[in-house]
């Protein structure tokens, strides 16, 4: 893995996001203060903090579903005022210049989806070159590192392998516990430690699942007009979450 650069001191820092232990307050669901920095994502945060001083026109952010890369990319996109793209947006090469307007930045979600499609590979190659030509930047999101993408276009493969790539891990126990506490606090719900412990033994290790579980419990508790206890969790969720 490429060593992350030191974040510049002048621009506002993504590292101002909450560190564990977190301050429990109401925050926007996908805002900067809602992102929790932990060992599994701190390298990615440092790289995004270093923008626009990246050594290449693109940065690849990869990791398993639910690791938080979409959330982190949304924070960067808001800061860079970039566009959110899917691989389908690359199908018309004539439209490529518009994908980087007006701020010369974009996030491409599911970037490894171009692999094996000659037209999409060629479009990403041209988009990469266009970003380089105009001094723009691309943030490419994927589940795997570029070295594992089955890219057939040699020029595109060489550019992707030359770009920095940083991985994000699935949340560990400490981070997932903090996320659960934070999600309940966002909804102004107080739960006991026994509820968090019960959920920790049954919750899939992903941010997306944690949000789903907390939302389900909140809605059920409001409908039943009951507090969220371990017994209530068991009634609503069963023994497997």
Automatic annotation (TrEMBL):
Q: A Gene Ontology MF term for this entry?
A: DNA replication origin binding
* Superkingdom as given in the UniProt entry: Bacteria
What Pfam families does the entry give? Answer: Hda_lid
Record-annotated Hda lid domain positions: 178-237
SUPFAM superfamilies xrefs? P-loop containing nucleoside triphosphate hydrolases
A GO cellular component annotation in the UniProt record: plasma membrane
Q: Which Gene3D superfamilies match?
A: 1.10.8.60, P-loop containing nucleotide triphosphate hydrolases
Q: Give the UniProt record's GO annotations in the biological process aspect.
A: DNA replication initiation
**Name this protein carries in UniProt:** DNA replication protein
Organism, as annotated: Niveispirillum cyanobacteriorum
């Amino acid at each position: 893995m490429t060593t992350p650069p030191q974040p510049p001191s002048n621009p506002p820092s993504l590292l101002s996001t909450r560190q564990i232990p977190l301050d429990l307050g109401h925050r926007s669901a996908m805002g900067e203060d809602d992102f929790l920095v932990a060992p599994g994502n701190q390298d990615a945060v440092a790289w995004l903090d270093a923008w626009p001083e990246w050594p290449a026109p693109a940065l690849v952010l990869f990791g398993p579903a639910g690791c938080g890369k979409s959330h982190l990319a949304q924070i960067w996109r808001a800061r860079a005022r970039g566009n959110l793209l899917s691989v389908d947006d690359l199908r018309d090469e004539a439209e490529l210049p518009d994908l980087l307007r007006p701020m010369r930045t974009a996030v491409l979600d599911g970037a490894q989806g171009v692999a094996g499609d000659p037209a999409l590979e060629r479009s990403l190659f041209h988009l990469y070159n266009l970003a380089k030509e105009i001094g723009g930047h691309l943030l490419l999101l994927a589940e795997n590192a570029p070295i594992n993408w089955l890219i057939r276009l040699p020029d595109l493969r060489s550019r992707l392998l030359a770009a920095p790539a940083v991985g994000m891990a699935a949340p560990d126990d400490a981070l997932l516990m903090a996320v659960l506490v934070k999600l309940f606090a966002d909804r102004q719900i107080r739960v006991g430690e026994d509820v968090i412990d019960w959920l920790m033994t049954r919750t899939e290790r992903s941010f997306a699942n944690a949000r789903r579980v907390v939302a389900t419990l909140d809605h059920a508790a409001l409908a039943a007009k009951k507090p969220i206890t371990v017994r209530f969790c068991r009634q609503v969720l069963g023994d497997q979450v």
